[in-house]
Design goal:
Length: 200
């Protein structure tokens, strides 16, 4: 099987739902499996610790997940136009994987959710790409040939999938947002099949 790691942080559930739609797209590709992983929140209190296994939802990612995956799709809510701290903190710890070239030549995509329409989706997506590019990953976006991207009035960008969650973080996903999240998953999975075992 070709393994696609769908790694995300979700505070209110929108990014987690987006991750499940990306995973659906991954698993629509023959021979591909989605592995859903999350990261714990970052505490402002140094003594605070999270349990090793979350009480609900997906399990926490570990460095071994980066080694065993054939591709990565990374998701984060937007925080003032940039990635949320838990995702940044996770990647700040990946110098050993960077030195070893663990993610080199593997395809990657990104996704995000914001409360407002102009809440910094594109800057967050571009920001999430930076550590992945430093790791030598091959970025996969969304082409305008995916017709939902041309007429969406909600989430969706050429840089990655996105969702507009609303001020109460409970806006339903639009059909375009679902289509584009699944398209991102299938594009990364297809790229993983093509690149598996190859060096660029």
């Amino acid at each position: 099987m070709t393994s696609v790691l769908v790694l995300y942080y979700s505070r209110h559930g929108s990014v987690a739902e987006l991750a499940s739609q990306v995973a659906y797209g991954v698993e629509s590709v023959d021979g591909c499996e989605a592995v859903l992983r999350t990261v714990p929140p970052v505490s402002s209190v140094a003594e605070a610790t999270a349990p090793a296994i979350p009480e609900e939802g997906d399990v926490y990612a570990e460095p071994a997940d980066l080694m065993s995956c054939d591709a990565l799709v990374l998701g984060s809510p937007t925080r003032f136009g940039t990635v949320a701290s838990p995702i940044k903190y996770f990647f700040d710890q990946t110098a050993p994987q960077w030195l070893a070239g663990t993610l080199k030549d593997k395809p990657a995509g990104v996704f995000t959710s914001t409360t407002s329409m102009h809440g910094g989706q594109e800057s967050t997506l571009l920001g999430m790409m930076l550590p992945l590019i430093h790791h030598g990953m091959v970025m996969v976006g969304l082409p305008f040939s995916g017709t939902a991207l041309s007429h969406t009035r909600t989430g969706g960008t050429p840089y990655g999938a996105s969702h507009v969650a609303g001020a109460d973080n409970n806006a339903p996903f639009s059909e375009d947002e679902v289509r584009l999240a699944r398209l991102l998953g299938s594009r990364v999975a297809n790229a993983a099949v093509l690149l598996k075992g190859s060096a660029l």
